[in-house]
Amino acid sequence: MKTIGTSKFIALTLVLLALLVVSLTPDAAAEPEAFFDTSGFIYVRYNSNRVFRPQPSDKAESYTMIDAGTALRVRPVAGTDYAETYYNGQIGYVKHVNFKTADASELGRLERGEIYVHTQTQLLSSANGGAELATIPANTLLLLHESVAGMYKVDYADEGMTGYVSANDTWAFPTSAVKYYLFADKAHHMLFVCEANADGTRGKTIVRRVPTSFGKYTTPSIPGKYTITSRERWHYFSPSYAPFVIKYIGAKYLHGPLYKDTDEDTLSGKKTNVIGQDVTGGCLRMAYEDALWIYYNCAEGTTLQIVTSSTLK
């Protein structure tokens, strides 16, 4: 019977100890690149204090804010609307409504830190306001450095300046990149998101069907063609607030359901039950997820056509 020499025994022991240490190392210590080796990119679309959670549950007791524009790798958690991710040295969970899957072009801009302003805005000297350094025209490309309290620190290369702009005025693509055409059928209480043709007219492909509330008899949603001109993360409709608000004319908007405050936890159940009825002051009201999708996918310049009735299905 052969025996193992002392040196070989020591070497084998060290190998076994190394394997034991590796097996006892928690997953949270794994490198992000290795941990998410086969997963896809997402990026956070807006600041929220309830983005990163320790469990895939709405009842999670603690949360961590992840700034808008942060790139993460994720893998979905089966049977939930959460995805597992690695952030700031920890494994946690993010909910689908807080992020958007990045396509190749958007991810490239994100990794390079490129953003656009979708409306004319002011370049300020500090995140708290400060002096106005310059006026930045809509569709101007900026280089993003960091997010600070709802403001983005950016390089404005056209004027060789560095300053701060409101995060609400920025976008992942230029507003001239109109991809969709919104077609609203009042009789069937449905908003159809269609692909736009190269000339801006409505294409044949329907991308999304959105159950929608329209204006009541005394404040109707007037049929016609309109153009999206601006947007707000929250808008006050006395005495309520609505998220993902897009103006199409005057004080008429597309938006999500009504809340008591600018907090997703203050939704009134009655406000969602009336979606699909004529109950608004002329606005087009829809579910939270639909309003979010339109807010982040339909750029300024997108056409909204409201019709009394149609055969579109």
Question: Characteristics of this structure?
Answer:
313 residues; SH3 type barrels; L,D-transpeptidase catalytic domain-like; 5 helices
What's the short version?
The chain has 313 residues and is α+β, with helices and mostly antiparallel strands. The protein has helices at residues 6-24, 32-35, 104-112, 269-273, 288-297; strands at 40-44, 71-76, 82-87, 90-95, 99-101, 114-117, 121-126, 129-136, 141-148, 151-156, 161-166, 170-171, 180-185, 190-196, 202-211, 214-215, 224-227, 230-237, 240-249, 252-255, 278-280, 284-285, 303-307. It folds into three domains: 28-111, Roll (SH3 type barrels); 113-171, SH3 Domains (SH3 type barrels), CATH 2.30.30.40; 180-307, L,D-transpeptidase catalytic domain-like (Beta Barrel), CATH 2.40.440.
Q: Can you give a write-up of this model?
A:
The structure is a single chain. The chain has three domains: 28-111, Roll (SH3 type barrels), CATH 2.30.30.40; 113-171, Roll (SH3 type barrels), CATH 2.30.30.40; 180-307, L,D-transpeptidase catalytic domain-like, CATH 2.40.440. It contains five helices and 23 strands. The protein has helices spanning 6-24, 32-35, 104-112, 269-273, 288-297, and strands at 40-44, 71-76, 82-87, 90-95, 99-101, 114-117, 121-126, 129-136, 141-148, 151-156, 161-166, 170-171, 180-185, 190-196, 202-211, 214-215, 224-227, 230-237, 240-249, 252-255, 278-280, 284-285, 303-307. A hairpin with a 4-residue loop joins strand 10 (151-156) and strand 11. The longest helix has 19 residues, at 6-24. The chain is globular and about 90 Å long. The termini are far apart. Mean pLDDT is 76; it is low at 19-41 and 45-50.
